[in-house]
Every structure is written in C-alpha cells, then in structure tokens.
Design brief:
Blueprint (H helix, E strand, L loop, with lengths): L1 E4 L2 E4 L11 H4 L2 H23 L23 H12 L28 H9 L8 H8 L9 H10 L3 E3 L6 E3 L1 H13 L6 H16 L4 H22 L2 H12 L2 E5 L6 E5 L11 H4 L4
C-alpha cells in the first residue's frame, strides 16, 4: 500500500493470518514470539525493580520492539480488523491525517557472507541486474555452475584472496584480495558486474538458436579480450593505484600465526582470518 502526502510517499505492508492451517498443530510462531517478548519484558522489569534503578511503572522499550509495537512487524496490533478496513479503500481516495511523528533508529549492517550464502548469491547473481532481458538470461545459470561454485570459493581461499573462518564459515577479504579488486575496478570495471556474464550467456543462446554462428561469437569474444587487455597495458596506473592499496592496508594488521609463524593480514572484527603474502604490496609497482 502506498500513500502520498504532498511530494512524499509512504509505503505500508503487513501480514494477516487468514487460516491457521497446520499452525493448529504446530503452533503459531507469532504467538510464541509475543509470549517470549512478554516474558523478556517482565524479566527486565523485575530486575529493574530489584535494583531500584528504574521506576516501578516502567515503560516498555518501544525502540526495541517490546510490548508489541510496530517494530515487531505489526501483525499483533493490526490483524484482521485492519484488513477489513483496507478492503474499502480504492486507488485515489483521500484519507484524513490525524497525527504525525518521527521515529529515530539505526540501520543494521548487512550480514557477512558465509560459504553457503556466498554460493547462493553466486547462483542468484541475476537479481542484481536491472535490465530485465539480461536478468532473465542469467537466471538459470548465475556465476559458475552447481558443480563449480564451491571450487571457485575454495580456489579464492587457497590463493589467499579470501579468508575462511573454519569455525563460523564466515568469508572475509584479505588485503591481497582487496588489492586485486581495486586493480580490476580501476582497469576493467565491467568484470565486476554480473551483466557481463549475462551478456555472454545471451550470445551463447544466440548461437544455440542459430541467430549467429559460433565463429562470430568467438570473434567477438576474442576482440573483447584483446581490446580490454591492450587497454589495461596502456593505462600504466600503478602509481595512481598505490594510495588505494595504502588506504586498504590501514584496516589490516600483521600478526604471527601460532602454527606457522608466518605473518597474517586481519581485517575488521575478524582477527586471524586471512594470510597475506609479504610481496603482495611490493609487486604492484613493478
């Protein structure tokens, strides 16, 4: 549902359980969540009363969703009553505005990829493409195949472009991996876009349909590789790239691993993940 007030547009959505179905046997997860929130709230109020640090009539923490506010999805407050009210709405109707308010909050950072979610992201890479035709082209293939995606990640880890935490399976970039990304970004940026994969997949479809010959496809592919390679060789942007490497290196620190004694690059809040070769920075200016 979209409502407009002046030039501003507000988007509203909610879910209502129309039929319990198997929830009659398994139990409604929303009821369990609401019960858990109530218990947590009661425990918090009990601890607050014991410590004497809060008022006896403590107000539920609306910001964190306690007390069944709209922060927990809104299904408990809205329910079937609101659904019945919305059925009478029609496009273009004017509604009275009874009150306005601003709620402050912070967005959560995206979760780090693990080995499983990364493979899923590679499989569904087409979702990032805006062009509908190209998105449909890569929908059935993605990046790599079901038989090669795990091996691609394994190779990136063995080449020390990515670091894999064996306990959590979280993937993080190494300094060397970030440097490779910066080089490609400043040299052949299209290689970082799944649209390139989709466009070549589209060409293969044309070959299969007979729209173009395999020789024509290979000629275009060779011309693309040749022109991009010559373009990179003519850039000579090693000096310009060095500040980018230095900036990325600020987020890494060198420590010696207990098992090998080699220096390892660590990134962000994931210490101990990802060894970096000593020659990785020096080799860029050659």
């Amino acid at each position: 549902m979209v409502t407009a007030m002046g030039k501003e547009k507000f988007f509203f959505s909610f879910k209502v359980l129309l039929s319990e179905g198997y929830f009659k046997v398994a139990g409604n997860p929303n009821d369990r969540r609401k019960k858990s929130q109530t218990q947590n709230q009661n425990q918090a109020q009990g601890m607050s009363a014991k410590s004497g640090a809060a008022n006896a009539d403590a107000v539920p923490d609306v910001e964190n969703g306690a007390g069944g506010s709209e922060a927990d999805g809104g299904e408990a407050e809205f329910g079937a009553d609101l659904l019945e009210s919305l059925k009478g709405l029609r496009k273009g109707m004017q509604l009275p505005v009874r009150s306005l308010g601003i709620r402050e909050g912070e967005t959560s950072p995206p979760k780090r990829y693990n080995s499983g979610s990364m493979i899923l992201a590679m499989e569904n890479a087409g979702q990032l493409i805006e062009d509908e035709e190209l998105r449909a082209q890569i929908k059935g293939s993605g990046i790599g195949t079901s038989a090669t995606r795990a091996e691609i990640l394994k190779k990136l880890v063995s080449n020390e472009y990515l670091a894999l935490n064996k306990k959590t399976q979280i993937l993080t970039p190494t300094l060397q991996g970030e440097m490779v990304h910066d080089v490609v970004y400043c040299s052949i940026r299209s290689l970082l876009n799944p649209e390139l994969t989709a466009s070549w997949e589209k060409g293969l479809t044309y070959v299969a349909e007979g729209s173009i010959t395999s020789d024509e496809y290979m000629e275009k592919l060779e011309n693309f590789i040749r022109s991009r390679t010559e373009g990179v060789m003519s850039l000579r942007n090693q000096t310009a790239l060095r500040p980018m490497f230095d900036e990325a290196a600020k987020y890494y620190k060198n420590v010696k691993t207990a098992d090998t004694g080699k220096k390892a690059g660590t990134r962000g809040n994931n210490p101990g993940q990802g060894r970096v070769r000593k020659s990785s920075v020096k080799g860029q200016d050659k």
